[in-house]
Amino acid sequence: MKLNTIKNPLLFILIIILSSCSKEELRSSNSITNFVVEHESIEYKADINDIRNEIILSIPFNIDLSSLNPIIKLSQGASISPESKAISDYTNPIKLSIIAENGSVRIYTIKVNKLPNIENFIISFKVPNDGDYLNSTIDNENNIIAIEVPFRYNLTDVYPEIEISENATIFPVNESITNLGNDKILYAYP
User: Fold this and answer.
1) What is the tally of structural domains in the chain?
2) Same domain flag for 90 and 147
3) Domain range for 93
4) Contact predicate 71/87, CB 8 Å
5) 63 part of a folded domain
6) The whole model's pTM is what?
7) Angle at 98 between CA 94 and CA 104, to 5 degrees
8) Above 70 in pLDDT, residue 2?
9) Residue 109 placed within a domain
10) Within 13 Å, how many C-alpha atoms sit on residue 4's CB side?
11) Distance separating alpha carbons of residues 149 and 147, to the nearest angstrom
12) Fewer CB near the last or first residue (10 Å), C or N of the chain?
């Protein structure tokens, strides 16, 4: 009988010790905390909407969406599927699964907004002159094109060659400009 009374307190202490050594709780956080894509050494940071589980990336109009390099940071202990290094083509929305340590999954959708072209520059302005061109200087900051014109040069019947920014338009249209005799105004629009 004495032996039983000693075993019971030892068993009781052993149960208390084992129950106090509980497992570490697994994290339940499954968020993307930062999302950036890199293109030609420039980083573009996305807006993350955790309520709608959306990542909105706004990038310039002229960037090819098929070859971007993402830099993705997750909440502590979370993992991602597919792996970020496997993602490079953003031409269509992409679904990412973020898995917490406890196994809970959150699915984010990445959407890309291409920013509009705001470039509206005249890049070159050439006026033909006996098989060559008249010298011209373009000041896009002040919107001035200066042309060195020889004495008695007829500016009323010329067809200048004008190059403008990609995706910009010009008014009046290039082919309709024939008279530069007076101050002319050309408009380049994005």
Assistant:
1) 2
2) no
3) 32-114
4) no
5) yes
6) 0.58
7) 135
8) no
9) yes
10) 1
11) 6
12) N
